[in-house]
Amino acid sequence: MAGQPKVTDSFWRRYMDVVRDEVIPYQWEALNDRIEGAAKSHAIENIRIAAGEAEGEFHGFVFQDSDVAKWLEAVAYSLAADPNPELEKTSDKLIELLGRAQQEDGYLNTYFTVKEPNARWTNLRDQHELYCAGHMIEAAVAYYEATGKRTLLDIMCRFADYIDSVFGEQEGKIKGYDGHQKIELALVKLYEVTGNKKYLNLSQFFIEERGKEPHFFDRESEARGDTKPFWYFSSYKYSQSHLPVREQKEAVGHSVRAMYMYAAMADLAEKLGDDSLKEACKRLWENVTNKQMYITAGVGSSEFGEAFSFDYDLPNDLSYTETCASIGLVFWARRMLNLEANSSYADVMERALYNGTISGMDLDGKKFFYVNPLEVWPDACSRHDKRHVKPVRQKWFNCACCPPNLARLISSIGQYIYTERNDGIFVNLYMGNEAEFDVKGRKVTITQKTEYPWDGTVSISVSPEEPTEFLIALRIPGWCRKAQLKVNGENVAIENTVNGYVYLNRTWSENDYIDLILDMPIERIKAHPRVRENAGKTALQRGPVVYCLEEVDNGTNLPNIFLPKSTRLEAHFDSELLGGIVVIEAEASRLEDSEWGPALYKPAEETFKPHRLSAIPYFAWCNRDPGEMLVWVNEK
Amino acid sequence: MAGQPKVTDSFWRRYMDVVRDEVIPYQWEALNDRIEGAAKSHAIENIRIAAGEAEGEFHGFVFQDSDVAKWLEAVAYSLAADPNPELEKTSDKLIELLGRAQQEDGYLNTYFTVKEPNARWTNLRDQHELYCAGHMIEAAVAYYEATGKRTLLDIMCRFADYIDSVFGEQEGKIKGYDGHQKIELALVKLYEVTGNKKYLNLSQFFIEERGKEPHFFDRESEARGDTKPFWYFSSYKYSQSHLPVREQKEAVGHSVRAMYMYAAMADLAEKLGDDSLKEACKRLWENVTNKQMYITAGVGSSEFGEAFSFDYDLPNDLSYTETCASIGLVFWARRMLNLEANSSYADVMERALYNGTISGMDLDGKKFFYVNPLEVWPDACSRHDKRHVKPVRQKWFNCACCPPNLARLISSIGQYIYTERNDGIFVNLYMGNEAEFDVKGRKVTITQKTEYPWDGTVSISVSPEEPTEFLIALRIPGWCRKAQLKVNGENVAIENTVNGYVYLNRTWSENDYIDLILDMPIERIKAHPRVRENAGKTALQRGPVVYCLEEVDNGTNLPNIFLPKSTRLEAHFDSELLGGIVVIEAEASRLEDSEWGPALYKPAEETFKPHRLSAIPYFAWCNRDPGEMLVWVNEK
């Protein structure tokens, strides 16, 4: 692809604008500690201190540098979409500062440089050293691709070269890996942009080494003289290092770590043509998406360890479902698509993009959820076991991973639309965009126009510079039960899809056009009967968008609303509401409590009264008066 | 009453036998560290060390003495019911040992005597010093009443006298109280048995002082130079000392502490004729029983702090519902009945006795639950937020409060049947027993025969030594919607009940008899619509017994069982099952998963297949193959 597609989509363009106008500037202020009342970041100051240009102590988490990296990465994507000389100048200056903070040998990490200069590489398990490097490598790659400027890329190549001299199979090198996966994925990107296979090999080394016995974290902790057991049940499941990656069959442990690792595994399986690694990825994918994923594409059922729990354990009110974990799921799905054109990966990717990722940010880009539960009773957030569930989005977090992670995802949303292959182009997502491809040596321009996700009509134009035979494969979304397809106005049958894609293999000429109409009725979704939490409940979905009830529309005590099975559901677009959304309404009924009396328990016939149910997209919840929220609605 | 009623009831007599034959002997071995594999108690050894008769260190909790006290109290009740010279000899020896462990000034507490002799009364908030004294006073009173032996009573009077010299309003005394209420209730008992009003006054002092500002725990912690905040949210709600007791309107904090305090308040309100204290008790009663109590009469919705949470927050799978808290609720209800003859207190007492208390012990008296949840999915007990929920009863606990507490409750069950008043006798509970009363100076013998709780027919004989006019008031249970009453074979109308009691005011003669037939159909109970957890669900109850589904009868995934609203429920007595219980059966349906396929979510019509639902009494769950359990069943 010649650069990333230019996103013109009204849904995503609005989010990109918010990231550009709100999130990126706000985060820059936050990183510089200029936001009154917000938790101190100190991230930029840490770099100044490391560069010897300021006095003071390191402050923040060991992974404070990664906030800067994620910000830079988001800036890069944003600059690619919307040039902004002032922002670019600010970033260039930051990059120069990073250069001055880099040590002689290429090392770059403000925590260790400032605070523990002699403790480099002594506690990979806990200290996020390679994790931070990974984020900065991703920023460097993105910045280079957006601006053509090599400064940060060179800095990070030097650091990666140094890392390569420290870690590896060879005598005298550390046979280890990071407690928080990230560098594995970043090194593949660095390999792709530099062509230097050393980086791919190093990524492979980290992945292959993981979970081998004798366990690196044991050897490392012994070398430190550390006698305390590791906090997380003393189990390496937390960091997916309990087994060699090829032997892992179920998603366990910290969900963000897991997502980043699985994404890297998919990358390596593709680049190395490694079938057994591909099988491991597919097994883990089946486990996550068929047994451990919420309908919003949230993952991580357990607050303890911010982790996966076990198959079919999907409590709606206790979930962790971190924004970053859904983002990680998008990264992974994107790479599974590279590995294999199968729309089930795109289905999950789309589910995450329209639900569990963007729910992490308010519509104005000013407040964020770390945790994205499927049922919120604000009063219950005072319970100790639900204290991680916040009833309203927060301005900034001490551990500020999610906001910049969302910023970089949204700014780079165009990267998820297409997969390029030698034989043509796969269309994974439908959103307004213009993209240029190089197909069989010829320039091909593809544009999409659509009001997705509110309307399933997509107009695609395909313009090669001269008539060329190639493949356009269009995904028929898993949620779509009926679709119509026309090429240049003529109906094309779509009985035969290949792994969920319609293959249009033909000679394309300038101004060819495709019309795809995806039926988008409201669906009542049921969860697998083994998800006990949802027995007798239904979730509303329309297209890729999962719906929820909010107190502001439906009053208090949402579990008392029952949706009769026979009720007709109506959808209408409300341009005034929440930036323009499709609302779902239905005649439902509500369990009455006004005549119940004080008794807590009694043999009683329930009394219902009619209730006009109003549901809004899950991602848009908590943008009006705060209150209860519920995805899985009682049916009767 | 001349001693406690002799319980002949087949239901309770079996439990009393189990306590006598299993629990008391087992606990004695445990207290003496003679159970292989069990957590070390060291409780008796602590006393030996305190008495100077053994060498060693104190071991266990600061409240380890209370385990001994509760055991002695249970022994006392058991001896009253079933004389046992050998057990009495063992106890007498223990009491002598306690006497030798008592200090010159009357002080008796092995933790402080052995471990911190100079720290007496410096940390009432955390160290359970008066709590232990309270339990030992209760044991002393019970032992004296059972055996007529004064040794332990004298020991504890000396200790109470000493405590009275340390605590009080007067200059130089500590104006404080214990972090764990218990002594307040014990001192009332000591007053009743000794007639010494000093003890009543001291109890009143502790209750009145609680929650006053400047706060005693602040003053105390300042005196200790303690700078750390108190763990429990730094809130004195944990120990109900956040407000003076008369100003408390909602049950908060540690539920066992709360129950013991409310019970003491009810005692004091009665003995002192204190109306505002009575009002406070009634307010708290309304709050607990109408807003914070499970259908099993479990209380404490939150594991954190073993505590109440807030109104209508009654999650079935996260509850704490400690056995001891339900026992405490029985103590409180019993005292509310003394304060006011109102069957609603007896209804709750009965609910606790047949459900949330005895569920804490298996039928053999060998294993115990600390936590009594209403829904158990054993797999989910591995979740960090549900780790307090044990899927099977445990042999013994480190913190062994519940087993001996149950032992003393069951051994003294007869004390809960009647309330004596000057004008007659109130029958609160129906169970087989023989009791002697002194009514208006005359001996009256009352016997009950019944197969309660399985059958609602109760035969009561009333035999005064000579014809006497007095009141017999019979409780019509809240669960009973139709009752028949005959006196000497003649129908008596029961339209007019006074606060739930039928008043039979007449001249009773030898061999008069009452037949009471309480209709006991199976009821489908609904929870108040504000209990969101139970929307769309029903609980089965028959008489006072709440039912549950178990995996062993119903297969896995109990939330997938739906009970149609129209289904007929059938009850039958199964003498072979679980010691003889009434089983409830019904034609229900079960959500099918065999044809669902792998997808986690899809638009699907649910498939149901017929399921023969089988429910057993909640108290009897987990006495066969371990597995899932569920009280609130989905309805459709």
UniProtKB/TrEMBL annotation, chains A, B:
InterPro entries: 6-hairpin_glycosidase_sf, Beta-AFase-like, Beta-AFase-like_GH127_C, Beta-AFase-like_GH127_cat, Beta-AFase-like_GH127_middle
Ranges of residues in domain Non-reducing end beta-L-arabinofuranosidase-like GH127 catalytic: 6-414
Pfam families: Beta-AFase-like_GH127_cat, Glyco_hydro127C, Glyco_hydro127M
Highest taxon of the lineage: Bacteria
Domain Non-reducing end beta-L-arabinofuranosidase-like GH127 middle: 425-520
Domain Non-reducing end beta-L-arabinofuranosidase-like GH127 C-terminal: 523-634
PANTHER family: DUF1680 DOMAIN PROTEIN (AFU_ORTHOLOGUE AFUA_1G08910)
UniProt-recorded name of the protein: DUF1680 family protein
Species per Swiss-Prot/TrEMBL record: Lederbergia wuyishanensis
